[in-house]
Design goal:
Layout (H helix, E strand, L loop, with lengths): L1 E8 L6 H12 L3 E8 L8 H5 L6 E2 L8 H6 L2 H7 L4 H7 L2 H4 L1 H4 L2 H6 L6 E9 L1 H12 L3 E9 L6 H6 L5 H6 L2 E4 L2 H9 L32 E6 L8 H12 L5 E6 L5 H10 L6 E5 L3 H9 L3 E2 L18
Parallel strand pairs: 1-2, 1-4, 2-3, 4-5, 5-6, 7-8, 7-10, 8-9
């Protein structure tokens, strides 16, 4: 069996659920190709990335295209290399009458190049709705062939949908083969948007529980309590509330230690909150950790705190409860 994954970035430290899915399939003898725009800019990479030699399975665009100028300057080489062998596909990617600004900007051209020559897969698995749209477009262009599965995780049915409009996924719903929301909440959302309920199956993104050994905790043995959260530092994770809650307890009890594992755009604000109240000796932002480091921190902790809220821009956690 051949399976293609369509992703934004890979590897991504926080997306162990995708890494585990890929390595789990490889362990079962499935042939995997990974199509991503670029790797995450993070030196912390999980060991399984190297163990399974995943760098050899990833296909990035020939160049990281950050500006309109880059797209123009780096157009001739891939065009000349592919035009005569894949004339129809190249011309279609430049058809601005059909694809508008997506073709005129050369975005579509540069996105199809990693998929040439056209590929046949049993399954094309797109994580996050926008990648599902991309996967369906590549199928429309007959550059990528196979049953299309799209997993929805949260932002793609909240903030992204709010920006792009309720009809964003209509073509994907009509042509896609299977849709995997990660909770019943998002399943109901898909149905309300017009997705055929017979094409939907809730799939919780699982973890390998064998890697996480349960330890029965005896609170107060050494007089201290260790707390931990593992999350990207974004609004929807609700970390400012857990920090304030722990801070309130610190006013009464000083032997509490709270570690927050992760990085994100709110790091500076959360650090300022901690420093402003003088909690920095007990509440620490420790950055990203690889899986082995996370497992060790969990073993040494008494409680896991996992807050979540709906962010001001409407962004919601993947496992969302009404």
């Amino acid at each position: 069996m051949r399976v293609a994954f369509i992703l934004n970035q890979f590897p991504v430290t926080s997306q162990t659920f995708i890494l585990d899915q890929i390595t789990g399939l490889i362990s079962r003898g499935v042939e995997i190709d990974i199509y991503a725009l670029k790797p995450e800019n993070n030196h912390k990479i999980h060991d399984d990335f190297y163990k399974y030699n995943l760098h050899s399975r990833i296909k990035y665009p020939d160049a990281e295209l950050f500006s309109k100028f880059d797209k123009i300057i780096k157009f001739p080489k891939p065009f000349c290399l592919n035009f005569f062998s894949h004339t129809e596909e190249i011309l279609e990617s430049l058809n601005f009458f059909k694809y508008g600004i997506y073709a005129l900007s050369l975005n579509l051209f540069h996105e199809i190049v990693p998929f040439l020559p056209p590929q046949q897969y049993d399954i094309v698995h797109a994580h996050f709705g926008p990648n599902g749209i991309k996967g369906q477009l590549l199928r429309d262009l007959e550059i990528l062939n196979g049953k299309l599965i799209t997993s929805f995780h949260g932002y793609d049915l909240s903030t992204h949908l709010k920006k792009k409009g309720a009809s964003l996924y209509n073509h994907l719903f009509a042509k896609g083969d299977l849709f995997l929301p990660i909770s019943n909440f998002w399943k109901d959302k898909l149905i309300s948007m017009g997705c055929d309920k017979n094409k939907i199956c809730v799939q919780h993104m699982g973890i390998d529980c064998n890697k996480f050994e349960f330890t029965n905790k005896q609170f107060g043995n050494n007089g201290s309590i260790h707390l931990v959260s593992i999350a990207r530092l974004t609004d929807k994770k609700g970390l400012k509330y857990s920090i304030r809650a722990v801070g309130d307890i610190l006013e009464q009890k000083q032997n509490i230690f709270y570690q927050i594992i992760g990085e994100g755009p709110l790091r500076a604000k959360l650090k300022a909150l901690i420093d402003r109240h003088g909690w920095q000796n007990c509440i620490k932002l420790v950055g990203w950790k690889n899986r082995d480091e996370v497992i060790q921190i969990l073993k040494n902790s008494d409680l896991l705190i996992a807050p979540r809220v709906t962010a001001s821009d409407g962004d919601m956690e993947g496992i969302h409860m009404p």
